[in-house]
């Protein structure tokens, strides 16, 4: 699965806008979505990585995998989604993870290894 060291990003740093990626209680997923909507892909990735770091659940992994897919990092997205699938605790999470895993593996740009 993807980690901050894979992308040479500082998940403990502070963004130019003052957002603290190292805050364990920070709203990292919400901030990542905001960065994504502004087209700030690298900051979005940093925030999703922080979310996955501080919240080890399947949902954080799924969100990170979708971010990686949008960046066309399909192998990392697939591996991250598979790691998240192993953390599924409920039928609701299982359904969401299945959809994301299918999207990762069915992308027209993705090559099964």
What distinguishing features does this structure have?
single chain, 113 residues, mainly alpha, 61% helix, disordered C terminus
What does this molecule look like?
The protein has 113 residues and is mainly α. 61% of the residues lie in helices and 0% in strands. It has helices at 4-7, 28-37, 41-54, 58-70, 74-85, 91-106. Helix 2 (28-37) packs antiparallel against helix 3 (41-54), helix 3 packs antiparallel against helix 4 and helix 4 packs parallel to helix 6. The protein is globular. Mean pLDDT is 78; it is low at 108-113.
Structural class: mainly alpha
**Average pLDDT for all residues:** 78
Q: How big is the Rg? A: 13 Å
Q: What characteristic shape results from the CA principal axes?
A: globular
Strand residue content? under 5%
Largest sheet properties = none
Q: What percent of the residues sit in helical stretches (DSSP H or I)?
A: 55-70%
**What is the number of helices?**
6
- The total of beta strands comes to 0
Q: Order of helices and strands, N to C?
A: HHHHHH
Q: Compute the separation of the termini in Å.
A: 15 Å
Show unreliable segments.
108-113
